[in-house]
Design a protein that fits this description.
Blueprint: E1 3-7, H1 11-22, E2 28-32, H2 56-59, H3 64-69, E3 72-75, E4 80-84, E5 89-92, E6 97-99, E7 102-105, E8 109-111, E9 125-127, H4 131-137, E10 146-150, H5 154-165, E11 169-174, H6 186-198, E12 202-205, E13 209-213, E14 220-223, E15 228-230, E16 233-236, E17 240-242, H7 245-249, E18 258-259, E19 271-273, E20 278-282, E21 285-287, H8 292-306, E22 318-323, E23 326-332, E24 339-344, E25 349-355, E26 358-365, H9 368-380, H10 386-390, H11 396-401
Parallel strand pairs: 1-2, 1-7, 2-3, 7-19, 9-16, 10-11, 10-16, 11-12, 18-20
Antiparallel strand pairs: 4-5, 5-6, 8-17, 13-14, 14-15, 20-21, 22-23, 23-26, 24-25, 25-26
Helix pairs in contact: 1-8
């Protein structure tokens, strides 16, 4: 009987093992997860879960019974410590060695942290990546507390929105010239800056953190412009790094993460990779897509190819973010955009990214209909003119038939 091993019990891992079974694999499946709970959704951690609006059980992607029913050996609170590609084996932290016919790495990513030298290891300095992080910071979100959010990306802004809704006095510092500079156009940055300021969040751009202050727990912060401020807690939202230690030690090829080919296979013919730990090819270039959609789609592609189906992976990136009363939905990737055009709607708005004459991405704020139109246009390779997009009289659905 064939034995497939999956290391990493997150969105990608859960999607991969489910796809193996639904696609007809009747061999042995073992999934290794470092956390003590079954695979769960991560996006709500910095949104509904942190607000206390979602119970832990509702985070679970599938019930624990699912894995038993599907004859999937789910090993929780277990770590893989070494890969042995030459003999197709994995050593676990218990000392047990598992032999595999095919292996999938869905190890995810780690949040970037601050160095201890500038206060990164003080108590009440948090990151937002897993359930333990969210549980650890929840008691700090009390009305009247003062918080510093370091990093003006989506994770930082989502945490800022939740904190502000809980009555916390929030300051966000972003070293770049504007929030969301790495991932969005100035028009989108302007929208979210205004949204946060309207809800009482202080946004400081072009200013970074010099150091956090305090003996055991953080009590203050000094910024790069010399400003000092009293704080009760800090959240570090400065990005993630792919979890590739096992893969690197095993000699797998790295390129922005574990380099996966068009069939989600690594440089080893018996090892696949999917999700935040892996990079893929998109529009002729290698990228790493940090999103739920990619974790699911790439993992399902890996599962099919572990079964010998020879299916090429064609990413269709999509993302979302919830902040205050705004739902942001993103379709496509704005890499190399040359201009952005704004369409105003009755309840929301959308920002349309073009590379020359080609439509490549859409940011939609409380505008789900135009988001869906944009997503379908991008996937179909259609590019309406900017004049059509910005004309309020344009029948957007008609663009799909053009």
């Amino acid at each position: 009987m064939q034995h497939f091993v999956v290391i990493g019990a997150g969105q990608a891992g859960s999607s991969l093992v489910a796809k193996l079974r639904s696609a007809g694999f009747d061999g042995k499946i073992t999934m290794i997860g470092a956390e003590p709970v079954p695979p769960y959704q991560r996006p709500p951690l910095s949104k509904a879960y942190l607000l206390g609006e979602m119970a832990q059980e509702r985070l679970y992607l599938r019930s624990e019974a699912f894995y038993a029913d599907q004859d999937i050996d789910l090993r929780l609170h277990t770590r893989a410590v070494e890969l042995h590609p030459d003999v197709q084996a994995v050593t676990l932290d218990s000392g047990e060695v598992l032999n595999y016919d095919a292996l999938a790495l869905t190890t995810g990513a780690h949040p970037r942290t601050l160095p201890a030298a500038i206060g990164g290891t003080l108590d009440n300095v948090f990151t937002v990546r897993d359930l333990a992080d969210a549980d650890a910071m929840a008691p700090a979100f009390r009305s009247g507390a003062k918080a510093l959010i370091i990093g003006g990306g989506y994770i930082g802004l989502e945490a800022a929105a939740v904190a502000a809704k809980r009555g916390v006095q929030v300051t966000v510092v972003e070293m770049a010239d504007r929030i969301l500079q790495r991932v969005a156009a100035p028009q989108t940055s302007d929208f979210f800056r205004d949204l946060h300021q309207q809800n009482g969040v202080t946004i400081r751009e072009g200013v970074g953190l010099d150091r956090l202050l305090g003996d055991d727990a953080v009590t203050g912060a000094r910024l790069t412009d010399g400003t000092e401020m009293d704080i009760d807690f800090a959240i570090v939202g400065v990005g993630i790094t792919p979890a590739t230690v096992l893969a690197e030690a095993a000699g797998l090829q790295m390129d922005m993460g574990i380099a996966a080919d068009e069939q989600s296979r690594s440089s080893d013919p018996h090892i696949w990779a999917a999700g935040d730990c892996a990079s893929c090819l998109f529009d002729g270039q290698r990228i790493r897509i940090e999103s739920v959609g990619n974790a699911i789609d790439q993992a399902e592609n890996a599962a099919l190819n572990m079964l010998g189906r020879n299916v090429a992976y064609a990413p269709n990136p999509w993302f979302w973010s919830d902040q205050f009363d705004c739902k942001l939905q993103i379709a496509g990737l704005n890499l190399g955009y040359t201009d952005v055009h704004v369409r105003m709607g009755d309840a929301g708005r959308s920002h349309w990214y073009y590379k020359g004459a080609q439509l490549i991405a859409v940011d939609a704020m409380n505008d789900p209909r135009n988001y869906m139109v944009g997503k379908r246009l991008i996937e179909a390779g259609k590019s309406p003119s900017p004049a059509q997009i910005t004309d309020p009289d344009t029948d957007m659905k008609a663009l799909l038939r053009a």
